[in-house]
Give the backbone structure.
Amino acid sequence: MTEALAPIDILLVEDDPGDVLMTQEAFEHHKIRNSLSVVADGVEALQYLRREPPYENATRPGLILLDLNLPRKDGREVLAEVKNAPELRSIPVVVLTTSEAEEDILRSYDLHANAYVTKPVDFDRFVEVVRQIDDFFVTVVKLPR
Protein backbone atom coordinates (compact mmCIF):
# COMPACT_ATOMS: atom_id res chain seq x y z
CA MET A 1 0.00 0.00 0.00
CA THR A 2 1.48 3.36 -0.97
CA GLU A 3 1.30 6.36 1.29
CA ALA A 4 -0.35 9.44 -0.23
CA LEU A 5 2.16 12.22 -0.58
CA ALA A 6 1.09 15.46 1.03
CA PRO A 7 1.70 18.56 -1.06
CA ILE A 8 4.54 20.78 0.08
CA ASP A 9 5.02 24.52 -0.09
CA ILE A 10 7.81 25.61 -2.42
CA LEU A 11 9.40 29.04 -2.29
CA LEU A 12 10.69 30.30 -5.64
CA VAL A 13 13.21 33.12 -5.29
CA GLU A 14 13.40 34.59 -8.79
CA ASP A 15 13.57 38.14 -10.14
CA ASP A 16 12.97 37.35 -13.82
CA PRO A 17 9.20 37.50 -14.54
CA GLY A 18 9.67 35.21 -17.55
CA ASP A 19 11.32 32.51 -15.44
CA VAL A 20 8.62 32.89 -12.78
CA LEU A 21 5.95 32.42 -15.44
CA MET A 22 7.75 29.39 -16.92
CA THR A 23 8.00 27.81 -13.46
CA GLN A 24 4.32 28.46 -12.75
CA GLU A 25 3.40 27.01 -16.15
CA ALA A 26 5.60 23.98 -15.48
CA PHE A 27 3.65 23.38 -12.26
CA GLU A 28 0.33 23.71 -14.09
CA HIS A 29 1.48 21.65 -17.09
CA HIS A 30 2.45 18.68 -14.95
CA LYS A 31 -0.40 19.19 -12.48
CA ILE A 32 2.08 19.52 -9.66
CA ARG A 33 0.01 19.71 -6.47
CA ASN A 34 2.58 21.60 -4.46
CA SER A 35 1.94 25.26 -3.79
CA LEU A 36 4.38 27.77 -5.20
CA SER A 37 5.09 31.08 -3.48
CA VAL A 38 7.28 33.62 -5.26
CA VAL A 39 9.52 36.43 -4.03
CA ALA A 40 11.59 38.62 -6.34
CA ASP A 41 14.80 39.25 -4.42
CA GLY A 42 17.04 38.04 -1.62
CA VAL A 43 15.79 40.52 0.97
CA GLU A 44 12.18 39.40 0.39
CA ALA A 45 13.26 35.76 0.55
CA LEU A 46 14.72 36.20 4.02
CA GLN A 47 11.72 38.23 5.18
CA TYR A 48 9.47 35.42 3.93
CA LEU A 49 11.51 32.69 5.59
CA ARG A 50 11.72 34.60 8.89
CA ARG A 51 8.02 35.53 8.69
CA GLU A 52 8.82 39.22 8.90
CA PRO A 53 6.42 41.87 7.53
CA PRO A 54 4.75 41.60 5.09
CA TYR A 55 5.11 37.79 5.34
CA GLU A 56 3.94 37.17 8.92
CA ASN A 57 1.50 34.49 7.71
CA ALA A 58 3.88 32.74 5.32
CA THR A 59 4.07 28.98 5.55
CA ARG A 60 7.43 27.35 6.04
CA PRO A 61 8.50 26.00 2.66
CA GLY A 62 9.49 22.39 2.26
CA LEU A 63 11.81 23.36 -0.60
CA ILE A 64 13.47 26.54 -1.86
CA LEU A 65 14.24 27.11 -5.55
CA LEU A 66 16.86 29.85 -5.52
CA ASP A 67 18.26 31.95 -8.35
CA LEU A 68 21.78 33.24 -7.77
CA ASN A 69 21.63 36.57 -9.56
CA LEU A 70 19.13 38.56 -7.50
CA PRO A 71 18.74 42.25 -6.70
CA ARG A 72 19.32 43.70 -3.22
CA LYS A 73 20.81 40.47 -1.79
CA ASP A 74 22.10 37.83 -4.16
CA GLY A 75 21.36 34.13 -3.99
CA ARG A 76 24.74 33.25 -2.50
CA GLU A 77 24.07 35.57 0.45
CA VAL A 78 20.57 34.13 0.88
CA LEU A 79 21.93 30.58 0.76
CA ALA A 80 24.59 31.40 3.37
CA GLU A 81 22.03 32.97 5.72
CA VAL A 82 19.55 30.10 5.32
CA LYS A 83 22.17 27.42 5.96
CA ASN A 84 23.61 29.35 8.95
CA ALA A 85 20.20 29.75 10.64
CA PRO A 86 19.37 26.74 12.86
CA GLU A 87 15.62 27.22 12.27
CA LEU A 88 16.02 27.27 8.46
CA ARG A 89 19.02 25.09 7.59
CA SER A 90 17.01 21.88 7.25
CA ILE A 91 15.02 23.32 4.31
CA PRO A 92 16.48 21.88 1.10
CA VAL A 93 17.73 24.55 -1.31
CA VAL A 94 18.01 23.90 -5.03
CA VAL A 95 20.00 26.56 -6.84
CA LEU A 96 18.14 27.05 -10.13
CA THR A 97 20.12 29.51 -12.22
CA THR A 98 21.40 30.34 -15.67
CA SER A 99 25.02 30.35 -14.50
CA GLU A 100 27.19 27.47 -15.62
CA ALA A 101 30.30 29.01 -14.05
CA GLU A 102 32.36 26.47 -12.13
CA GLU A 103 32.99 29.00 -9.33
CA ASP A 104 29.22 29.45 -8.85
CA ILE A 105 28.73 25.69 -8.67
CA LEU A 106 31.58 25.21 -6.18
CA ARG A 107 30.53 28.20 -4.06
CA SER A 108 26.92 27.00 -3.93
CA TYR A 109 27.94 23.56 -2.70
CA ASP A 110 30.40 25.14 -0.24
CA LEU A 111 27.42 27.06 1.13
CA HIS A 112 25.53 23.73 1.48
CA ALA A 113 23.13 23.91 -1.46
CA ASN A 114 21.32 20.60 -1.80
CA ALA A 115 21.51 20.71 -5.60
CA TYR A 116 22.67 22.98 -8.40
CA VAL A 117 20.61 23.02 -11.59
CA THR A 118 21.27 25.14 -14.67
CA LYS A 119 18.05 26.51 -16.17
CA PRO A 120 17.47 25.33 -19.71
CA VAL A 121 16.40 28.08 -22.12
CA ASP A 122 14.07 25.77 -24.04
CA PHE A 123 10.57 25.81 -22.48
CA ASP A 124 9.90 22.06 -22.85
CA ARG A 125 13.27 21.20 -21.31
CA PHE A 126 12.68 23.74 -18.51
CA VAL A 127 9.30 22.13 -17.75
CA GLU A 128 10.97 18.71 -17.63
CA VAL A 129 13.68 19.98 -15.24
CA VAL A 130 11.08 21.48 -12.88
CA ARG A 131 9.10 18.21 -12.99
CA GLN A 132 12.24 16.22 -12.18
CA ILE A 133 13.09 18.50 -9.25
CA ASP A 134 9.55 18.13 -7.97
CA ASP A 135 9.58 14.35 -8.45
CA PHE A 136 12.89 13.97 -6.68
CA PHE A 137 12.27 16.25 -3.70
CA VAL A 138 8.64 15.25 -3.18
CA THR A 139 8.51 11.61 -4.22
CA VAL A 140 12.01 10.22 -3.68
CA VAL A 141 13.52 12.27 -0.86
CA LYS A 142 12.11 12.23 2.65
CA LEU A 143 11.77 15.89 3.73
CA PRO A 144 11.51 17.10 7.31
CA ARG A 145 8.05 18.32 8.32
